[in-house]
Amino acid sequence: MKRTIFEPEHDQFRDSVRAFLTKEAVPHTEKWEAQGLVDREFWSLAAAQGFVGFSAPEKFGGAGQRDFRFNAILDEEVVRTGTVGDGFSLTNDIVLPYFLDIASAEQQARWLPGIVNGDTAIAVSMSEPGTGSDLRAITSTAVREPGGWRLSGSKTFVTRGIQADLVIVAARIGESDGGGFGLFVVPDGAPGFTRGRKLDKIGRRAQDTAELFFADVRIPDTDVLGEPGKGLHYLMGNLAQERLSMAVVAVASAEYAVRLAVDYAGERKAFGQSIGSFQANRFRLAELHTRVAMARTHVDRCIEAQNSGELTAAEAAGAKFLTTELEFEALDTCLQMHGGYGYMEEYEVARRWRDARVQRIYGGTNEIMREIVGRSLGL
């Protein structure tokens, strides 16, 4: 069915994004995979085209356009062109909203221009070696002192942690300071801030992921986001868009997997006929095609709800676990139909299969997503 959520300006934006990625990203896939990160030069080129931080106000270089349909288009075209790295979704969908929604006017003037022009890479660090989806178990601490805070602790699985110039760190504050959590912005080079190893992952190898360590890092009050004690509220408030972003990627990935499988099944011969002509394969692809189409319709409705401010945390959680499970199922089916060739690195489906697996883990595991939905039902 034809999608109905986009206007002509969105279609023009999609054409621009696709042309840019095809020219500036696709040819570098193997290089970026091998070196374990995407070149910063690419990010500068993307920013110059207006694909970075476009939700920021015009006075800071953005387009002032907080229409998630543009975010979705970027995410979809990254999938469809096979572009590696999570820089667009991380920056535009996940981290930038913290700077737009809770940063002070002074902080925005100081940080947003660099983010929008590509000079400043940003990241957010929540997970710790002993905590994953349970944000309330965070043990990193920030202790009050005159004019600021002392931040100590460690974080792991930090996407873009190696290259980030600014890292938002979630940390627990003392009861004497009101309790709860705070969000602290740590710049590259801050005394006491060190980066550990670049983590060697199964998939998404071109996206640098790191361990970060904070040893009595001094954070001035001017680098605290929002109100100390409300950090968990801020994190939870932004997770709906983060999980919707993952659902957008998942559906686009599942659609691509089904098309790839159909094309291969029509070409590959076995026992004198195409493998797609076997009823088992034909029925399997028919089912996947229909389920992915239904998921696409649901996610498009979630995008509209996000734009109108109606998308709930439970709805986003449901979309995230439903689509990421379907994504991996579709890619696993596609790999299976490729047979032994699907397990070979030179075949595209192998990388896409590897890259998709983490979608069921990060942003909150799918088990936690089911828990959120279940609790929303009053159970």
TrEMBL record:
Give residue ranges for domain Acyl-CoA oxidase/dehydrogenase middle: 123-217
Q: Which UniProt keywords apply?
A: FAD, Flavoprotein, Oxidoreductase
Catalytic activity line of the entry: a 2,3-saturated acyl-CoA + A = a 2,3-dehydroacyl-CoA + AH2
Q: Which GO terms describe its biological process?
A: butyrate catabolic process; fatty acid beta-oxidation using acyl-CoA dehydrogenase
Q: Does the keyword Oxidoreductase apply?
A: yes
Protein family membership: Belongs to the acyl-CoA dehydrogenase family.
Q: What is the name listed in the Swiss-Prot or TrEMBL entry for this protein?
A: Acyl-CoA dehydrogenase
Q: What is the lineage of its organism?
A: Bacteria, Bacillati, Actinomycetota, Actinomycetes, Mycobacteriales
